[in-house]
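Posting for a labmate who doesn't have an account.
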Amino acid sequence: MRILVVDDERAFAGILSVGLTAEGFTVDTVYDGRSGYLMAATGAYSVIVLDLMLPQLSGFAVCARLRAEGVITPVIVLTAKNGEFDEVEALESGADDYLRKPFSYPVLVARIRSLLRRPAAIAENEISVGDLVLDVARRRVRRAGTPIDLSGRERDILETLIRAAGTVVSKATLLGEVWPGEAEDVNLVGARVSVLRRKIDAPFRRRSLETVRGAGYRLVDDRPAADRHAESSG
């Protein structure tokens, strides 16, 4: 699998390239938006890892041009920008995922692998585990078609767990993802997860948000096997 890394911070891009190569990927690296766009437009890559603040052409513009030209390669944005509107603009420009710097490297790898598992033709505005669906751009959540009202922090936790695709996510990772640079007490995570579970599981008599003692949390498709089979064969 070939990955294109587009980031003007050369030291950071080099570290990322070494790490992804160790994970078994073939990695190409460029340092400006125009070069990134030209290489991405070839369609030769399985995933594009893209910074937003780039010389010559911004990450927003790179995404928009690629999608306008029919390039459907998944794009995961890495950025130091913290604004919610920046995230919305990136997703509306065509990005499939969004991670703020500093981020957890294992989460980045998990999200890349999650993107690689998705059928290329699927629109990436919605992500899901079973019948629990998050519309990333509109920040809306529903289960089996029923809307669920979550706070911003709860949605961020849910998004991280959905994108991990059944993989255990530690409290420390969730703390870094949802409270980047803001908090150090992992007890915040446990309290928020408890509230999230009461909203996404309890009203539906479900147990999809699992606690893995000593390790963290994971989100699973807990529907009966017959329901899962009916969906996959339908």
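Reply:
Got it, the structure tokens are right above this. The chain has two domains: 1-121, 125-234.
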